Structures are given as C-alpha cells and as structure tokens.
Amino acid sequence: MTTTQGVYDRVDDRGNDGLDVLGPGELRLLRELDALILTWAEEAGALERRYPFLLRPDFLDGLGHFEDFPHLGLPVSAADPERLLKSLRIAERPLASVPAEALDDARYVLPSAACHAIFQSLAGRTVPAEGAAHTTLATCFRNEERHGGPRRPLAFSMREIVHVGTAEGAREHVARFKERVLALGARLGLDMRTEVATDPFFDRTASRAIMQLLFPVKEEFVVDGVTVGSVDHHGDFFGERCGIRLPDGTAARSGCVAFGLERWVHVLTARFGGAGAAAEAILKLR
Q1: Does the structure show a pLDDT above 50 at 211?
Q2: Which residues of 195-227 are buried (b: 16+ CB within 10 A; e: fewer)?
Q3: pTM value?
Q4: Which of 43, 112, 234, 241 is buried most deeply by CB count within 10 Å?
Q5: Residues 283/200, Cβ–Cβ less than 8 Å
Q6: Residue 245 class from Cβ within 10 Å (0-12 exposed, 13-18 middle, 19+ buried)?
Q7: Of 114, 110, 67, the residue nearest 232 (C-alpha)
Q8: Lowest mean pLDDT across 28-32, 143-147, 181-185
Q9: What percent of the chain has pLDDT over 90?
C-alpha cells in the first residue's frame, strides 16, 4: 500500500511547472507566520479584508501595468462552448493547452500583487486625513519565463500591509516595517539583507530608474538568494492613477510591506531543519 503522507515535507523544485504542493507541516508553518504578521497589521491599525480574486483590465491599464509588466499577465478568459467543442474534435488529447481560438476576450486578469485589489477598491474615494492601513492575504500569479520551486512559483500567497494617506504616514509605515522584518530575520537566525529592486516598472534607460538608485523606492528582503518580501514607497502613483484623495483634494500617498509566504516557508524550513521546528520558533515570538 502506498501513501502520500510525508511526500511533501519541504518546498523545492519538484518539476511541477510551478504547481508545487505544501504538506501539512509546511502549511502549519505558513499559517503561524501569517498569524504573526497579522498581529503587526493589527498594531498598525490595519483592517483585514478579503477582496475579489480577479482584477479588471481597465484598472490595470490605468496603472500602465501592461506596458510595465507585459511578461506577468495571466488574463482570465471564458471558453466559447461551440468553438471549444470544435477544437476538441481535432486536437490531440489530453489537451496540453486550451486553444486560443476557442476563447473569448479576457474580461478579467489574475493579480500579480495583493495590493492591487486594495487600490482597485479605493479608486475614486477619499481617505481620512490621518490615513488608513489595510491588509489582505491573496493568491498572486506571475507568468515568469521559468517556473518551479520557491524562487519562481506560478502562484503564491502574498500578505501585504498597505498605508494610504499622507507622504509622512507612508514613509513612517515603510520605515517601521522594514525595521520589524529585519529584526525578525535576526531573531530567527536568518542571514537577511536588503537589495534595491530592479522591477521592469523602472525602465533602466529612463530618469525614474536613476531616481530609484538614488532613493530606493522598493527594497527586497533576500535570504540565501530567495526574495522573501519587500517594502515599497509608492509616492502618489496609486493616488493619482486611481483618483484616491485626501480631504484637501490632494492625491493620497501610499507605501506597503509584502511577504511571500511560501518563500518564507522555504528559508525557515532550511534554517531549522524542518517545518515543525520552524513553526515552533515562530510561536515563541508571538
């Protein structure tokens, strides 16, 4: 008799094209870590919400997302029954992919970052003068050139804590959480460093790329070559693009901290020699 128990005891590249499975121990570790982060969000006054799982193309287009991240897009399209059945009659089975000619135009897009749903919900609204914090846990999707293992998952869990308000409030939010994440890494014995991000959003030939080097807009937390999270100064980007205003009519500023939970599971499991031991270490910090 065979069993799957114990098969998925660690996160690695299992050759599943980015569709890896977390075992019970890993899932417990992920939940304990997220519970710890959620206490930080509550201390920051963040309200937790569950947002729609899909984004509208017009919202992302307004952000310039398709130009800045054309490689990440995973549109969601419905199949036209008649065209799909016609394709099935001539296709090799089982299908390796659904033929594009059987699909309708995509009316929705899978998110690549958790904060996008937050800003989509705030679009056109006025936020309090003192600002407000928001948090959510979302499954995010990135159409990377190559998938597999913790470095390049097709789908992954992202917890974000976002502050939307004044420039000072956003800066304080980012600075506070950068310090907390680095302190957490130190307490857990992780060799963590920060690196300035080189996202395609920042065209390396443009002036904003130079500004990013002078003023690190986005910094990533890296452990053993794995990026486990980041802090990001948005400035008034989302405020302007989404029409999010302060009571005085000026565009709101924002900043966020993000955690890639499966990547944390990977580095913590390696650090403590198992997911169970890592979960116990997280519990001691709560």
Answers
A1: no
A2: eebeeebbeeeeeeeeebeeebbbbbbbbeebb
A3: 0.87
A4: 234
A5: no
A6: middle
A7: 114
A8: 143-147
A9: 77
